[in-house]
């Protein structure tokens, strides 16, 4: 997921080049014994990509999507004047795989460029201006040292949770220990910009920050990002137009799986039910116990899927706020120590996206932090800025809002150390069920697509 591009973008071109390979093609050999070859659960970036790839290779595919459109964390707000704000995913890596997918769907793209003219640091708990936690030059130098420090974790270079045995202690210890041991305090604000979805990141296992802003992400900054000319939604509208069978506003209420195939009972929002039979099942949404209610889970699956914790994540577009156009307003708390990071729940950033009067914002909270809580936090943060006189705040209105929970799926340090991810990856193919998505790979579309290609190849070998 790339949720924001800042003025850092144009200065990060000091870093190492991006190199991404394209996986081999999919084997199309198949003996039809069920109505569908593959049923895909979830039509986000990963599910939509998998569906197009499989259908292009002659597979009979059905996508089960709970929302009314494809795209997952993609959110585009269109204004009457024809302009738009991408307030979810804002771009994908400018690499061979991304360009090929855009071209397949006939979607024109352009490079993502910084839209801000400057950055303000504000303590959202008081509404007052704060000092920058670190100068930009020092931050960039620290980023280079951070990149060098990550060389020891080359197994993370593709965004996977494919660890050596034993698992290196540094990745399951708190991030603050890695920062202190490598004297990387100056890189903390930049890590927060890209990995704010981890929440209180310094206290969490370093792994989850590395997976939000590590080697592949730093390299991608040099390669750049691309986005459809008419907004990120355009990519998934194009995908929807070519796919033959997408069941929108539909969820699985019962699943029976075996080595010979899967039988799913699905229910539409209007209450009607249907039965779907497929040779294989591809789960692309996070495999939580709630999302898999009604599945015939094994004891191993139940044990693994019950260990998750996550962050609730919300995105919004505001209007009539009074925040000056062209500014990024970064939440900064000088009382929290190195990096001046806010504590959950928080708005990480009020971000100008190039459309006057319509900044967007991102809100991160614990698992019990609701959408209503997020909207109230937006309002109270603006109110504090108004009271402090920091900006000429008017009457802010949330004109677009989306819930991207759950995100940043995590397990405890003890579970990481004891081989949780080896057990998780070992589920691939059991009882005709395969997995991809943000719980198996870093949550950036380009990395997810590359990982998904490897899973599709495995599915064809069955």
Automatic annotation (TrEMBL):
Signal peptide interval: 1-21
Keyword Kinase in record: no
Residue ranges annotated for the Amine oxidase domain, each copy included: 50-288
Organism: Aspergillus violaceofuscus (strain CBS 115571)
Xref: SUPFAM superfamilies: FAD/NAD(P)-binding domain
PANTHER family linked: FMN REDUCTASE LOT6, PUTATIVE (AFU_ORTHOLOGUE AFUA_7G06600)-RELATED, PROTOPORPHYRINOGEN OXIDASE
Keywords for the protein's UniProt record, in alphabetical order: Signal
Any Pfam family: Amino_oxidase
Domain of life: Eukaryota
TM annotation in the entry: none
Name of this protein: NADPH-dependent FMN reductase Lot6
Record GO terms (molecular function): oxidoreductase activity
């Amino acid at each position: 997921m790339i949720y924001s591009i800042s003025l850092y973008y144009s200065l990060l071109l000091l870093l190492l080049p991006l190199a991404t390979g394209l996986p081999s093609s999919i084997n199309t050999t198949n003996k039809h014994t069920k109505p569908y070859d593959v049923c895909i659960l979830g039509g986000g970036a990963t599910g939509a990509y998998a569906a197009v790839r499989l259908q292009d290779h002659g597979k009979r595919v059905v996508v089960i999507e709970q929302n009314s459109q494809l795209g997952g964390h993609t959110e585009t707000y269109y204004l009457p004047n024809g302009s738009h704000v991408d307030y979810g995913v804002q771009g994908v890596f400018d690499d061979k795989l991304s360009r090929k997918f855009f071209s397949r769907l006939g979607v024109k793209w352009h490079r993502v460029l910084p839209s801000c003219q400057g950055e303000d640091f504000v303590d959202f708990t008081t509404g007052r201006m704060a000092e920058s936690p670190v100068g930009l030059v020092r931050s960039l130098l620290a980023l280079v040292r951070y990149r060098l420090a990550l060389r020891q974790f080359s197994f993370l270079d593709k965004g996977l949770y494919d660890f050596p045995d034993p698992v290196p202690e540094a990745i399951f210890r708190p991030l603050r220990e890695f920062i202190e041991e490598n004297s990387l305090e100056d890189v903390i604000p930049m890590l927060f910009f890209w990995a704010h979805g981890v929440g209180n990141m310094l206290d969490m296992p370093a792994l989850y920050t590395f997976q939000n802003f590590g080697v592949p992400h730093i390299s991608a900054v040099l390669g750049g990002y691309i986005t459809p000319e008419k907004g990120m939604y355009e990519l998934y509208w194009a995908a929807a137009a070519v796919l033959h069978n997408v069941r929108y506003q539909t969820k699985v209420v019962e699943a029976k799986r075996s080595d010979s195939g899967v039988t799913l009972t699905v229910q539409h929002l209007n209450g009607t039910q249907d039965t779907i039979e497929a040779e294989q099942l591809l789960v692309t949404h996070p495999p939580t116990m709630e999302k898999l209610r009604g599945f015939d889970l094994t004891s191993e699956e139940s044990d693994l899927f019950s260990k998750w914790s996550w962050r609730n994540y919300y995105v919004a577009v505001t209007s009539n706020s009074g925040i000056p156009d062209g500014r990024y307003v970064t939440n900064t708390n000088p009382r929290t120590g190195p990096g001046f990071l806010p504590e959950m729940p928080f708005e990480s950033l009020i971000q100008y996206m190039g459309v006057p009067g319509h900044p967007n914002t991102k809100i991160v909270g614990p698992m019990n932090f609701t959408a209503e809580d997020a909207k109230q936090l937006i309002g109270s943060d603006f109110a504090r800025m108004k009271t402090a006189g920091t900006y000429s705040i008017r009457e802010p209105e949330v004109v677009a809002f989306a819930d991207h929970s759950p995100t940043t799926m995590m397990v405890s340090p003890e579970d990481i150390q004891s081989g949780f991810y080896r057990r998780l990856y070992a589920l691939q193919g059991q009882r005709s069920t395969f997995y991809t998505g943000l719980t198996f790979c870093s949550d950036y579309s380009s990395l997810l697509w590359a990982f998904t290609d490897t899973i599709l190849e495995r599915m064809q070998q069955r």
